[in-house]
Amino acid sequence: SKVRIYQLAKDLGVDNKELVDTLNELDIEAKNHMSTITEEEAETVKELFVDKEPTDEKQEDSEQKLTVVPPVTVGELAEKLEIDSTSIITKLISKGIMASINQNLNEQILSDLASEFDFVIGDESQEDEEDSNEEEKIIEEILKDEPKGDSAERAPIVTVMGHVDHGKTSILDAIRETKSLESEAGGITQHIGASRVVYNDNTIVFLDTPGHEAFTEMRARGAHVTDISILVVAADDGVMPQTVEAINHAKSADVPIIVAINKMDKPEANPDRVKQELTEHNLVSEEWGGDTICVPVSAISKDGIDELLEMVTLVSEMNELQAYPENTGKGTVIEAKLEKGRGPVATVLVEDGSLNVGDAVLCGNTFGNVRAMVSDIGKRINKATPVTPVEILGLEDIPNAGDTFQVVPDEKQARQIAEQKKEKEREEKLRKNQAVSLDNFFEQMQEGEHKELNIILKGDVRGSVEALKESLLKLNDNEYGIKVKVVHAGVGTISESDIMLAVASNAIIIGFNVRPENNAKKAAEQENIDMRMYRVIYEAIEDVKAAMSGLLDPEY
Ligand code: GDP
Fold this sequence. Notes:
It contains 20 helices and 25 strands. A six-stranded mixed β-sheet has the order 7-8-6-9-10-11, with helices on both faces. The chain has a six-stranded antiparallel β-barrel with strand order 13-14-20-17-16-21. It has a four-stranded parallel β-sheet with strand order 23-22-24-25, with helices on both faces. A hairpin with a 3-residue loop joins strand 13 and strand 14.
């Protein structure tokens, strides 16, 4: 029987070419690595290699080859090999793999490419791996979430959303003016990003920055820092584009909505019209048989503010928000800045456990020892229980809004973990490159990552947006078992908040006769969001269909 040369080369662990050359030197005919030789011939040549100590020359040879350590994307590989990325993409296409420049290459594909482009796949040395496994275990142990002690009800965290000028800020001010803690505690409200109010002995925490933009930006970072959203709709203006946005942003985060129908003091106020318009977005008020709580209010006269807070506590009780005050503290960064003479200052919300002055904390990518804490009413405190907004001093660096923080046993470990997290984040960023796109949807779906294609739809006029949405939803009856979900559909240009929603909900964006704003374009590039513009509905539908069946031509 015959032996295939490349198979033999593989068995011997030698280069195809080296083996062919050696065979030729032995006067054994071998055209290339696809040729075959007899078993006897194979035995002869085997002896030459098996006993041969790896020569220096050979070692040098493999050292000369570039080592590529996964994970890498097509673009990164091209850069490393100093070749044009299209030549990799073309190679992949010839193998039937549709890839974009940001695509991560799995090990299988990478090893295919290794022989084509002459590089070797490296992995960090075994030892390193064991080390980091050990470290990871310790970290896991530290970060393990085992509740200590008894649970206690915790205050809800509330975000106010709605269309511009409908009165978000005014309502927040009205609430704080009448109900803030300061009168009781003798402090003065500090603007640190979040504040507590007390209503009938119930504490409610409000995030100071209203709007769904801030909310979704934090969510895009992985924070789930809102329990209830108050949707402000002006009774004289009704449901407007940003009202719809806010509804969809809250829904996509699964946050319950309480509607505040504001400006009831105005003679033109028409709350029924607001309720009517809300039904078009699946928010049906209670009086009309639905389960959406609508409270008529006026931020100016303060009528209805008490009822609004009453509803917040009610919804909060229904959701049974709990925390374990005896746990080690953890929560989310609301905002952070560098202050002259104070260093990095971060406002955090302690959502579980307790945070104490002197605690070592890990905070996003940074860490530190809590040197001092200042509450939302400007008081220095030593201990913060759930849910307290506090400014903390003592961090090494400025974290990001939406980062989580966590108390750890000591600063040394905090430093270690922070460094590891940085590394992880780098990897995460690579992984992010696999954000869903029409190009890779089919591939990811086959790997079981998605059964649902999330879409954000923006168009120039309501009619076309509705038409496109309906046609897309019709694709739901497909043979692939995939669901199309329109996370948000709206009229107008594609904004940065659309991009953030796409990040937070892992969606693609389809624009119909609209363009992205400049900063949205930048954000989309940064976050690697698939954004496609169409002028013909049919083409958009065809592309989505093609993506579902894996037949879409990649875009370069
Ligand atoms: P935001 O953009 O949603 O934060 O809206 P603002 O709170 O800045 O309010 C926009 C405008 O509406 C301001 O001029 C407010 O004085 C006014 N406004 C807010 N609430 C009420 C209200 O209940 N009644 C009346 N008449 N005006 C209000």
